[in-house]
């Protein structure tokens, strides 16, 4: 770590300590546990609460969007859905801006991610198919509960067709500009985008609604026999099959993908999820769209030499080619 990195982390720690005061008095310095889109700190307050304090990335959602995320999560948790409860400040607010950044806090869950990266789920949780079956049931519960209790006036991202197929500015960036793509590969991704636009136009509105939009293994926690969904940072309105596709994307190259997909969709259907079984036929398209979006997500977030830039580009090409057939 360079001297500059150390200074930046020290400044972030100081900002977290100041932000935490809105929720109470920390018993010790906040501990940084994650620094991706948001910086997340482990904080114990003097009233006994342990919270996940989040400092939100500037320019992404802003206070209104974060408040909408937390209102949605609060409605879900109040209804019994397995996600962390948002913690309100001492004044009853869901967010605080006193530290010069939008800050929020969630209930700390004593649980661990079901897996990481492209590896199969933690074998201590059982066979991978059982884990995917449980995630399918969790997503069915998310969709059903959101329809029943979520506020109607949420300011959240829209994950419908323009998010993926806008020819100028898709939601996570111009994926065809990924520097690891050859001209031919960039053209292939644009062709997949254009074919998908027509297919998405035919999907019934009944198959859309509030979705998490980022069901990676790191965002599904397991503890005491319960699976929890965390990090609703990207959640909004979109195609519900996309949630299942994001739960599969890390396993796109797994030899057992067919079995994992079957387990996920069976878990969803068995739990009474609102999607008809025929909707699952679009999973390859939505996995390809997620791969395209991720190839754009790296732009502006990672330096060109980061290996993920090329890795995401390669995955996007492979999944787009496989889907287009």
Automatic annotation (TrEMBL):
Aminoglycoside phosphotransferase domain location: 36-272
Gene Ontology molecular functions: amino acid kinase activity
Keyword hit for Manganese: no
One Pfam family this sequence matches: APH
Listed Gene3D superfamilies: 3.90.1200.10
Keywords: Kinase, Transferase
Highest taxon, organism lineage: Bacteria
Sequence similarity: Belongs to the pseudomonas-type ThrB family.
Protein name per the record: Homoserine kinase
Gene source species: Meridianimarinicoccus roseus
Lineage per the UniProt record: Bacteria, Pseudomonadati, Pseudomonadota, Alphaproteobacteria, Rhodobacterales
């Amino acid at each position: 770590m360079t001297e500059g990195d150390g200074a930046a982390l020290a400044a972030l720690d100081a900002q977290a300590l100041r932000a935490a005061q809105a929720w109470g008095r920390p018993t010790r310095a906040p501990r940084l546990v994650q620094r991706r889109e948001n910086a997340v700190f482990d904080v114990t307050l003097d009233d006994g609460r342990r919270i996940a304090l989040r400092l939100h990335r500037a320019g992404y959602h802003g206070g209104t969007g974060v408040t909408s995320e937390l209102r949605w999560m609060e409605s879900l948790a109040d209804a019994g859905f397995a996600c962390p409860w948002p913690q309100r400040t001492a004044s009853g607010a869901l967010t605080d801006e006193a530290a010069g950044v939008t800050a929020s806090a969630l209930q700390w869950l004593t649980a661990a991610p079901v897996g990481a990266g492209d590896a199969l789920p933690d074998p201590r949780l059982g066979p991978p198919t059982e884990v995917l079956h449980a995630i399918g049931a969790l997503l069915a519960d998310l969709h059903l509960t959101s329809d029943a209790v979520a506020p109607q006036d949420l300011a959240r991202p829209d994950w419908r067709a323009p998010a993926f197929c806008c020819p100028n500015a898709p939601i996570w960036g111009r994926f065809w500009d990924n520097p690891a793509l050859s001209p031919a590969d960039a053209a292939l991704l644009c062709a997949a985008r254009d074919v998908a636009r027509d297919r998405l136009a035919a999907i019934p509105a009944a198959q859309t609604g509030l979705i998490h939009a980022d069901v990676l293994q790191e965002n599904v926690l397991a503890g005491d026999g319960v699976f929890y969904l965390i990090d609703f940072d990207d959640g909004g309105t979109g195609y519900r099959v996309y949630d299942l596709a994001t739960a599969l994307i890390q396993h796109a190259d797994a030899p057992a993908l067919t079995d994992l997909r079957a387990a996920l969709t069976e878990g969803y259907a068995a739990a009474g999820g609102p999607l008809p079984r025929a909707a699952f036929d679009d999973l390859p398209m939505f996995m390809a769209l997620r791969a395209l979006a991720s190839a754009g997500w790296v732009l502006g977030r990672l330096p060109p030499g980061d290996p993920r830039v090329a890795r995401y580009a390669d995955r996007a090409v492979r999944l787009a080619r496989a889907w287009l057939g």
